[in-house]
Each structure stands twice: as structure tokens, then as C-alpha cells.
Design a protein that fits this description.
The protein is of the alpha+beta class and 295 residues long. It has helices at residues 11-32, 36-61, 153-162, 184-209, 233-262, 273-294; strands at 2-5, 64-67, 71-76, 81-86, 90-96, 102-109, 114-120, 124-130, 136-141, 145-148, 216-221, 227-232. The protein is elongated, with a radius of gyration of 24 Å.
Length: 295
Amino acid sequence: MKTYKSAKGFGVYYIISSMLLFDVLLGLLIYITNSYIILSILKISIIIVSIYAIYYIIHSLSINYLIDDDKIYISSIFGLKKVAMPIKSIIGYKKSTGKIKGIRLSGFVKDSFAFGRSVIDKIGNTSMYVTRNKNVLYLKTDEMCFAISPNNVDDFEKNLNLIGIKQTDWNVVQKKSVHVYKDKKFFIPFLIDSIITVIIILNPFILYLLNKLQKQMPLNFDASFQPVQWGTGKQFAFNQMIYGVLNMAIIFCIYYASYFYSKYDNKNAHKLIYISLVFSICFLLFQIVTLSVNI
């Protein structure tokens, strides 16, 4: 087995600077905000984005490419993540230099580097492991393409030719969007998300109709979860229903984003719905805590 290191690039610095900039901006918002709900959303956003960025930082620093008699491997996260491509499944490869042109589906993708999933012009749906765009090799398999940037690209190409993988062209077939709701991986979290949203909307309304709410209910809270604005039970129910309507809008946007995503990557289109599900759970927990204290 022969191992090739990835070419050195500046992608990791871009990811680090983007993460720090995002965290600083949200940190400033946290500093000047005195709303419990907004603070909670901002803190959750910082955690999610930071974990996402740190994953790709480690990923970009640890990419290696390996070739043996049967397979080509792309290894990262210190070997914890490994993609294996059987040589028999590889149709051929293309070589490219210069800007990476395409549509980013996930990860971090710029003109000079790419980590994640993209739809590349004249290449198709591609899993990107490109640390530098000087010499990029696109390996075409039966299912999709893989983009790599080995440091010693000439020797890598030589080994590809020795094992029967030649430079070639292929046609990119444009897929049609599918109905994501038919996928159980999408439908189940979508259904849970919808049920939670209905609960957020109806729960305070039903409690109001049953006269279970107090005459004065907290409408807004500060950072320490102390009420800063009070209103009637009717106003409280209306406020909580607004959160539910906001969740419905998020679900609507996520559904059509998933529908668009499925045109390029049907297998991973369902993952977007979890963004909406996280927000719905947060709003529901906030409502439960508020009601438990004030009923």
C-alpha cells in the first residue's frame, strides 16, 4: 500500500477564521441581549457551528490518500473516517487546475479548496477532499465522484494508470428532484417536528380556554430567566402561538430546501429537517418550563 499526503493549502485557516468571526459576532449579540429565548438560541448556534467547524478543521489537517492492489482509500480524522473505492468500481478520472466551480451542498467549499459535498460543473455530484486546487483529480465511480489533491500528483497518476484507471470524460446526468416525504429518514423527524409544533400552538391556547392560566403570565424573560414583562393569559397564549407559527415557517423552508437538495444528493436530503427539529424542541422545552413555573 502506498500513501500520499494531501497538498498543503489555506483551507484550514479560512475555516478557523470563519468560526472565530461567527463566534465573536454571536458573542457580541449575547453581550447586548437580555432575552432568555434569544440568548438560548444564540448559545445553541455557537455550539453547533463550532463543533461543525472543528470537525472540518481536524478533517482538513488529516487527509491522506492510499492505494493498494484492490482499492483506493481516502483517510481523515486520523483514520477514524475512511472512504474505500474498489478499483473495479472506478470508471476513470479527470484532472483539473484553477478555481473549483460548482454548487456547495455541505461542508466548506471555496475556489481554492473544498471539504464536504458539491455538485461540480461537468463532473457531477462529488465528495470533496481537496486541500488545494492546483492539481485536483476527480475519480468517477458507479455512484458518484470523489475529488482529491495529492501532494505528489504525478506519481499518483502514474499509479492510477498502472492499475488500469485512465483519464477520461463522462456525461453528467441531471437528476429530477424526488418527493422527500416518501423517505422514512425524512418523514419520521418531519412528523415529530410537526407534532411538536402543533403542541406549541395548541397547548397554551387550550390551557387558556380551560382557564388554567394565571391572570398575569410572564411574556418575556431576562438572561437569568426572570420575568421582565407581564401580560394576561390571553397575551401569553398568543405569544406562544407565534413561536409555533415561526416553527411552521422554518419547517416549510426546510422542506423546500430538502426538495432542492434531493435533486443532487437524495441520500442526505433528509438531514436538513433536523435543523428545524432542534429549534422546535428548544421552543417546546421553553414553553414547558414557563408553564411549570407559572401554573
